[in-house]
Records
---
Amino acid sequence: QVQLVESGGGLVQAGGSLSLSCAASGNIFRINAMSWFRQAPGKQRELVASITRGARTNYVDSVKGRFTISRDNAKNTVYLQMNSLIPEDTAVYYCAAEHVEDFRVRAYWGQGTQVTVSS
């Protein structure tokens, strides 16, 4: 079992910045990709950014140039630096990790952290 714990959410004014982190713990063998998703009220959960173990990154178009995903493999931690925040970024942000176990990949999710951007 792997547990993911997010931190760093909160309330910020438009144009401000927030930094999220997500630490994995438990019986970790190997974590492949790590990702950040978000879900706004009444909307589907969407992929915000992902990063491979080798640090290849991918972003949804709406956050390109504003958000940066990074990771520390030694700490099994993924980060999301969010700059130039806009009200449309308001959502619950979830981290996810692909863990290799029993010759397969299993996805784990964090509990979510609220990000609210006021106009």
---
Amino acid sequence: QVQLVESGGGLVQAGGSLRLSCATSESVFGINAMGWYRQVPGKQRELVARITSGGTLTYADSVKGRFTISRDGAKNTAYLQMDNLKAEDTAVYYCNVVRNYISQIWGRGTQVTVSS
């Protein structure tokens, strides 16, 4: 079963940067989109950024201009560059892959904590 391997979370001061990575555990075909979601306790998981196989980008309004998503299609790896981090960005970040327009794969999550 394909798994997603996330890395890059951690603790950073407000105004700092982090880069998250998400790689598939094996070669995967039929990927339509890769993205990042985040969740804080007591709230629903929300979309942060997504990139489709065609290169279409989607960002949450709260991260536009600060976060950048990119993808290495050959490696089935997605990256989330997070700059000018704010305390409200603190959350568990989950990688998500959509395959064949139907199935979804989720990573286990990586904690991002921004101290003010």
---
Amino acid sequence: QVQLVESGGGWVQPGGSLRLSCAASGSSITINNYAWYRQAPGKERELVASITTPGSTYYAGSVKGRVTISRDNAKNAVYLQMNSLKSEDTAVYHCWSPDLGDFDDPHSWGQGTQVTVSS
């Protein structure tokens, strides 16, 4: 069974950087379409960035210019480089792929990685 596994979260001071990774294990197909979502306590889940075939990207206004999404098809992985982090970026970050299932399908989501930005 295919599983998305995120890593790279942690604690960072404001202004710092983190690189999140999401790798698909157990997949025999190339996954091309990914999205990163985040959810802070008491807030709705929000789309941070997405990348689709053939490499089109989207960024939420709140992160545009500070975040870069990239994909490695050979590794079936997606990355989220986050720079100039702010306290409001604190959240659990999840990756999702529509190639693995619908939005409501838990198998198309990773378990999440916590990002905490504070001084």
